[in-house]
User: Fold these one by one.
Assistant:
Number 1:
Amino acid sequence: MRDPVTAYVALGANLGDAVATVQQAIRDIDATHGVDVVRRSSLYRTDPIESSGPDYINAVVQISTSLTAPALLAQLQRLEHDAGRQRPYRNAPRTLDLDLLLYGSAHMESPQLMVPHPRMNDRAFVLVPLAEIAPKLVALEALEAVSNQSCTALAPSV
């Protein structure tokens, strides 16, 4: 059995009931064998970036996992598929998007997986919720660089 690794996963959806989809995805991630959700951010409403369609609902979860990064990615892609995710074109609106942001201190680059996520520092919808649950991982300069992007926390009752 592998020692657990701390990893961070970004969640987003903008089709259907995006709030319910993201909340269910958090429960599904936690129910995945070899994965435990340790912390979860608030839900955030964000404008689509390099995309179209309705606003997104986004969040980030911190997990502890005994899965390898490729195995974790496969599980996340299975959850996307189960939620009806289709990929008709790059940045298409989506029922569910799950991105592996960080996997311990690992740096990986393959056609299937890049960790740390290559665009995470360009996106408020990743950095703001990540800073909420892991402030030491997000530099103030990085937050300032994306401060022009809309990213609004939803009321806690949602």
Number 2:
Amino acid sequence: MEKKIRLGIAMTGSFCTFAKVLEVIEQLAEEYDIFPIMSEFAAATDTRFGKAEEHLARLERISGKKVITHIAAAEPIGPKKLLDALVIIPCTGNTLGKLAGGITDTAVTMAAKANLRNGKPLIIAVSSNDSLSASAKNIGQLMNCKNVFFVPLRQDDPVKKPTSVVCNFSKTAETVAAALQGQQLQPMLL
């Protein structure tokens, strides 16, 4: 039996996308060994889109593993070489800024730093209302970084939210497969 690729899945607080994201994670779990991670905020916040404990429980059911929710628990990802790739899905503007600025203050940013330290792919699935304004420079900076890849993205409501961008979640598996080969899935801008 062939060993499955170890895929970190890190969720940040774009709560309106959680239902769709959890479906994507279930699909990825068919092919990959999933290691779940959530930012402290995403792991502890109840919203109109669901209760935090329900999201955590579903991630644990999908992966068969406890969700990493603290920096100290994410730190061993680097030295123990726990992952072959990491997907941040959804990735908020806040997290984009932290990644671009080298800020490591959540379980997700620690996992990203730890994984990149090992030269492994970081796949970013953007979901942010300020992607084409305040976060645009961070997206551009990250696009220029080695081993950083983006799930193809598009404006989600150009009339009512002209600076908002969301990735095409259905392209996540293809993006992961391409990133594992060192390639950016194209077209990246839809």
